[in-house]
Amino acid sequence: MNTILTTILIITGITTTLALLLTLANTYIADYGERKIRINKDKEFIVEGGNTLLSSLIENEIYLPSACGGKGSCGYCKCAINEGGGPVLPTELSYLTEDDMKNNVRLSCQVKVKADMEIQIAEDLLNVKQFEAIVEKTEDLTSTIKLLRLKITDGQEIEFKAGQYVQLLAPPYPGSPDEVFRAYSIASSPNNKGYIDLIIGYVPDGLLTTYVHKHLSEGDEILFNGPFGDFYLQDCEEDAILVAVGTGMAPIRSILFEMLNKKIDRNTIFFFGAKTPEDLFLLDEMTMFEKELPRFKFVPTLSRAPEESQWKGEEGRVTDAMMKFLEKKEGREAYLCGSAPMIDSTVKTLVERAFADNKIYYDKFD
User: Fold this and answer.
1) Global pTM?
2) Under CATH, which architecture does the 239-365 domain have?
């Protein structure tokens, strides 16, 4: 009996000691203190160690693109960490190419600041700003898609290229205790520098889309930063093919406004995919573009057109309509926006129609 009690006391003592050691380790060993981050061998600042590099940069008003909101699922928040990054983490490997690895490129949302760092960031990202805005207008485009107009209220103006995106910040709200940011393409004209339009679809359990669709109202204040992205209208006279489904309409709408504002006269076809007639939107605008842009054609396509709808347009996937309308010839550009499967199938169709790989531009979202 005494032996059993002694054994229990020894085990309890060992367990208590280990717990104490772990507590001390977390308190002292994991306390990285203040650390210095130096950017492009020029700008530097002090941060509290232990946080991710991405969040540390945001705290110092340096905004890297991060479509997933820093969750490690988009691979956009890359930067070169020349010193202090530590070993590459398993969570980064699927997003880093061989060239990335050779050039010390890492995912800033995965790397924690545990030592002083020397990092390299594209100069244009150092000019990205955060904007304070008010929701000037919300409009239900369909039962699941809203258009937001965000009027900038802090005296700034936004300069962007048609096709680029911003990161929208949602504050904590019931069901979401933390701030959340996600990427959304700008849907408005670059000529309008005092506001931006966004087209946002509702995704069940999506933290930011739930905030927009269930909690955000006209008159509310909101923050966004940007612009980001290298998906934008190129300076070219070749025929242009535009392809989008659902909320992928956003950057294409901005591109069409850019063509209208600059009086760009190019043969242009916009293939837009939806499920049913109720999922089509902004048709009046598309009619306006067809009138104002002499060589522009809008081709909506329904994948699930009900027989009773008396739909007389194209049916099937957007790629079906493309195969019908596009002949096989070289010397054209394509701009695509949609989900990964849609982009992949569309690129395949375009290549079959003799589009060059380097003339196919796309904005792929989850």
Assistant:
1) 0.85
2) 3-Layer(aba) Sandwich (3.40)
